[in-house]
Amino acid sequence: METQAFGLAHLWAQSDFVIRTVAAILLLMSVASWYLILACGLRQLRARRSEGAIDAFWKAPGLDAGLQRLAGQVPDSPFDALARQGAAAAEHLRHHGHRETLGGALDAGEFITRALRKSIAGSTARLESGLTTLASIGSTAPFVGLFGTVWGIYHALVNISASGLATLDKVAGPVGEALIMTAFGLFVAIPAVLAYNAVTRANRVELAELDAFAHDLHAWLSTGARIAPLPEHAPGAVDGTAVAEAA
């Protein structure tokens, strides 16, 4: 009895323009997804050095030295951009002061706040770059693969009907090959969805750290003093022995 070899090569050889187009789309989706995953992963690795860079910034003897430390440890990072934007705003106020213009009508605190918010908005846009693509790939790739499966099954059934041989081996092989397109769609979608969730969480943490740094930077540029961190345990707040002794 003659046997047929089924597999990816046979599927590609027997497929029509629609199946090949779907396969090409899934391949492009996979390449774009893994490119964004690697790019975001490398950026997150660089972002992990930000905590030590911020500590080095506040331990610097002056603002210029602190900016140099940030630029040396985390160059082109949101924290470096934020500090430089705030320093530029403070320098502008020192040299130009208040003028009879719409921007000059703001006081020093509001002027620095606007500069810091502008930097945070730009950094947020850069951090979220590519997330829409990852979300789109993760949500649409399974349906693209499913469309390829449906079309492949239809194409296989048409060929079987034309040949008049509806035996099990004639049906199971082409249908099984068509189901591979669904597997391809899931193979593309799952890494994209997992990467989207991981990058979104990492961005949320980084933006929270950036917002805290902006508050400290605003206080220092406005008043010349950094906001003191709260102590981990307030004296006598929740310590039962302290309360008993006080009683």
TrEMBL record:
Pfam families membership: MotA_ExbB
Record carries keyword Membrane: yes
Top-rank taxon, per record: Bacteria
GO cellular component terms attached to this protein's record: plasma membrane
Keyword annotations from UniProtKB, A to Z: Cell inner membrane, Cell membrane, Membrane, Protein transport, Transmembrane, Transmembrane helix, Transport
Annotated compartments: Cell inner membrane; Membrane
Residue ranges of every copy of the MotA/TolQ/ExbB proton channel domain listed in the record: 108-210
Bilayer disposition of the protein: Multi-pass membrane protein
Parts of the chain that traverse the membrane: 17-40, 134-158, 178-199
GO biological process: protein import
Subunit structure: The accessory proteins ExbB and ExbD seem to form a complex with TonB.
Family: Belongs to the exbB/tolQ family.
Function according to Swiss-Prot or TrEMBL: Involved in the TonB-dependent energy-dependent transport of various receptor-bound substrates. Protects ExbD from proteolytic degradation and functionally stabilizes TonB.
Protein name: Biopolymer transport protein ExbB
Lineage, highest ranks first: Bacteria, Pseudomonadati, Pseudomonadota, Betaproteobacteria, Rhodocyclales
